[in-house]
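INTERNAL AUDIT FORM
Audit reference: QA-55
Scope: verify that the stored structure record matches its stored sequence.
Auditor: D.O.
Record contents follow.
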Amino acid sequence: MELPKVETGVDLLGQLSEDDWREIAAANMQLGSEEEAVALGDVERVIRTDEIEGERVRIIGYALAEDDSYDLQAVEGVVDMVASLEIDPDNPAPFATYTNEMAALCVRTVQNDVTTNYYFPIDQQAIVAAELLSDSSDVPRHIRKLRHYVNKTEEVVEENDIQDAVSRCELVNDLNTVLNEMAYGTGVRIECKAYSRRVDANECGVDVNADGQVLFGDLPTFAWRGNRPVLEIFDKENQSVLFRVDVKDILDIIPIDEGGVEDGADLFETVFNEDFRRLAWRLETDLSYTDESSFSDTLHEYVQILRDALPYASELDAVSLAGFVLVPSDTSGNLKSEFIDSDRAYINGINFVKYDGTTHAVLEVVVSDQSSDSSRSVYVIPSRDKLLRFENLNDDVQDLEFAVTSLHDIAQGVSEAFKSDAFYSFSLEEQLERLKQYDDEAHNVLDTINNPREFSGECTVMAYRCLPGDLLDVVSWSDVPLQEAGNDKGTEPFTLRADQLAVWNLELNNLLNLDGSLRKATDLPLSFGEPVLMVGNREDDEFYLVRARDIIGLLRGNPQNIS
């Protein structure tokens, strides 16, 4: 029995429901008004341009020509943005239009170093076919996305002749924001085809052909080289050496720590290989012909067979994926297909579901919803037909280590603020506002380890205050003694059970009985002005108040197994 053939593309607009098309039509009615930006944002959300931007597509449909007419075009390029097209009454479109303006999908093509933008009105009568193409270059999704943004930035600068320092700084900062999402921390490993290097003040500027070259460096950032942003990193072994790499030559960027390189693996090559997919397809087929009377027992048996077929199932946890998944419909509860792109998803289990009349073996995966700051469960079919990217992130030890380091850096920042004469020239309100900015930074740090899966495991600390849950609203934290390592408990740090982490600085959130502004850090005796974390052990109904500087380790796991 052979596996089904792999599809060459995925019907992009075919994934839109009738409700989606009605929402697009409603958004078109708002174009040209003060609500145009919101309306275009609604269209981008419906067709998920943030998830597919920079990906290759093949579109056949009517595209706007330079003379404001519409020509039937067959275009293969990359997805760009959604724009508003004004309908010229003197050049009627060859498809039905009901508004003066229409939202259009921009597709960028490059031929002979010339970029051409094609604008396809997002309309069922305007687009004959739209396929999202899988990428066969082995270049990761995050690198393809980065290349897309760099190319767009260069194009904007050249077309508009942007030379003022402020505008160019804003553009390159936007790129560095995207870069920081994939290269968090300071150390990176860069796989590239070519690079240039500068030693001290002497510009070598020599491109080195280096197939399979790997660079290890610190502080990756984009900088301008003419009108094009180029990635710069300092050599990890020699900080006087600066590497410059054009994004077109970058094959991958991987964050590293001092212990070595953390690398993801293609799960289709390591776990969900051809043997597994062949087994899953056989079980799917057999299950679809199973009698209802024995279906429950057979389902339980087949789920166990699939679990046993995963040699590394116990190690699977965090994954990175992009492609079409199955989600419950809001109205009927039936499953529908939806495109997602997530670098923080977590596998919860394996199961079988029925979709479109066919039984599928699926993974139950928890992903974060950035728009609503929440998490949800989806079903992932482990098939190259459905997924453009499916990689193992091993575990999130590095994320947790980086979170601890970041909290210490924030605490150090507060300490430096209290050493600054300028800080004491501010009013109390201004001082508290600046301290709250450090709280906001700590909130962002915890977001990275709490979404989409809330932290649960060990929290190792040097000091803490503790209250049982039934006394939280009764006893003041100021009256709770501080437990410190090195005092009566010995020199070893404390290991706390934790199934909840949150920033909660009581002293910044409540009015202070102070005579004037802050004069020293000890005016805030619980926090010293730095972020304070509420560490919850809801299983035992105990809560700990811990300053950022006192957290020295985080380890995810089952708190019930922690002694």
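Auditor finding: record pair retrieved intact. The longest strand covers residues 335-355.
Action required: none
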